[in-house]
Amino acid sequence: MRLLFISLLFVITLFANETNTTTIDTNSSSVQTPLQKVLYLSFKDTPKRVLKGEIFSLTIKTLSTIKNFQTIDYTFSDYYGLKSLNDVPYREETPKYFYDTFYFLVTAKTAKIPNITAHITSNDMKQYQDTTLIGEKINVVMLNPKKEFANIIANSFELLNYKTTNFDQLHNIVVFSATANNSDLKSFQLNDVYKQGIESIKESIADSKITYYAIINKDIENFSFSYFNLLKNKFVTINIPIIVNDDSVTTQTDLKPKDQSKEKLKMSIAAAIAIIGFIFILWRKKYIYLFFIIIPLAYIAFIAIPSKEVCIKKGSSIHLLPVANGTIFETITSEYTLQKEGSVKNFTKVKLKNEKIGWVKNEDICSY
């Protein structure tokens, strides 16, 4: 009996040891080695105060403990009130650090800088730990502008050229080009104008460019608007004198209709010269003075020739300016002819039945 008890105790002890050994082996196989951290991030600087509508930069100071890598990629999370303007950073490299700069547009009254996670891709495809930099809330200030504010906040805003021409009996059209630094030009908006819009825009954080039109009342002699200059920390007024004259600015677009009053004056002068020549012929009996009759009469005949008419296809668009993808202010509902006022590359200027001046693409002119 004693021998049986000892044998049973031995079997139980042996089974327990095997079970414990199996459990330890199972747990040992589940332990994973943590990924190595090779990236260390910090903000070089963060803005203390921003304006709603302002573009600001955020520079990340990045240190990598390995040199053999392909790229460092960043992802943003947990942020609001901001719009990211560049997914790929502008990089400045030093022997020790990478300074990666991102730009953000402030879009709301409250804003928080994003949490920024950096991921490194090594040449040997070895996996490393991602590093996250935690963003904080920033102070957003709202402007209290006057009525002429054009919704532009920038380091600078400069007119390149401008031009004013007749639009209809009640309005003139002002077209201008401008360049801006550190500005969201898409937000440009004027107050108290009949009609307005962007004709073309080139977006760049460092140097944006816009061509804009505004249709204004004829009684306005000086057109002005303002923007907020970040460097001067104040509103700056931009003035455009309203001079309906082809020589007011040098541009590639000819918008002004013919000045019929000047044409009549020229015809009157030519007629006067012809009459004087005719009197000299009767008085001196010398036909050499026919020269003073023929040339003025030929000039009068040339001016008197009516403008050429062009046939416009049904469904054609009448553009405000001769600019690709420009503003369309009327669509032709049926095929009919219009008076041709001039032309530039790919566009013909026409006068509509309501006396408005517009531009039609050459491809929309009838061909027979």
Descriptive overview:
By secondary structure, the chain is α+β, with helices and mostly antiparallel strands. The protein contains 3 helices and 24 strands. Strands 1, 3, 5, 6 and 7 form a 5-stranded antiparallel β-sheet that branches. Helix 2 (260-284) runs antiparallel to helix 3. It is elongated and about 115 Å long. Residues 3-30 and 246-261 have low confidence and may be disordered.
- Write the element-wise H/E pattern from the N-terminal end onward: HEEEEEEEEEEEEEEEEEEHHEEEEEE
- Main β sheet profile: 5 strands, antiparallel
Total number of helices: 3
Beta-strand share of residues: 35-45%
Rounded to the nearest angstrom, the distance between the terminal CA atoms is 124 Å
User: How would you classify the helix and strand content by structural class?
Assistant: alpha+beta
What is the 3D form? elongated
CATH architecture annotation of the largest domain: Sandwich
Total tally of structural domains:
4
- Specify the CATH homologous superfamily of the largest domain: Immunoglobulins
Using the coordinates shown, work out and report the CATH topology of the largest domain.
Immunoglobulin-like
* Count of beta strands: 24
Instruction: Determine the fraction of residues in helical runs and give it as a percent range.
Output: 10-25%
